[in-house]
Sequence to fold (258 residues):
Amino acid sequence: MNEIDLLAVEVHGSVLRVRIDRPQMHNALSRATLAALGDVFTRHAEDESIRAAVLTGAGEKSFAAGGDMKEFAVIRSDTDARALHQSANAALGSVRRFPAPTVAALNGLAVGGGAELALACDFRVAARHAKIGYVQATLGITSGFGGGTDLMRLLGPGPGLLHALRAEPLGAADALRAGLVDAVAEQDETLEDCLARFLEPILRRPPLVARGYKAMALAERLGAPLERRMQIHEDSFARTWTHPEHWAAVERRAASRG
Fold:
């Protein structure tokens, strides 16, 4: 099975759109699907015209209902379990490190590995019926794709630990209150309209600005040394200050003030 069978990928305007296309399997994350996701985000990372990336699932039931447990059932040894974790974490790492802001559009259930994939993104926007949760503990395991770190960073050690041990998916409104999602579709609003509303202020910014701030956020997320973080700040400022878009904005500001 190749990437085309697993994902639908397009660049629409300045937005990379990636859809997991396994609705008959509740968009479960097989090894091939994870590898395809890693390849897509790696391949588009150098396209500086992209202002944002959106990741979603096919249909209205599941964003990604965890890992493909039917496929993973044959994994029984310590060596094989570690290999799965390493390959899955590498795939999610390509999403985390994507140089433009990333948004998970939760069209349905995002649990287990699907929740880890959602938290690999910078932001999460949810349909009203969507649910998200780290439910791995119900299967007697911890998070398998490297997303435990993302959960503890996002919620904090105490709330993150409690969420993981309760292992109960949260509805969209509760997930918003908990800090797991950043926006929920309003009454009678489609997920696509909610996503457009969320993206609108991001897409107004020049790609270089979006990428500069993403680099700062990523350095904080990955715990880069202070010296490295400050170098990223300096490099981003110099690139954006000397870019023609900055001077065009300065001229527009001056003209508007008469």
User: Anything to note?
Assistant: Residues 133 and 169 are 4 Å apart (CA to CA). The beta strands are 7-12, 15-20, 52-57, 62-65, 102-106, 109-111, 123-126, 131-133, 170-171, 183-184.
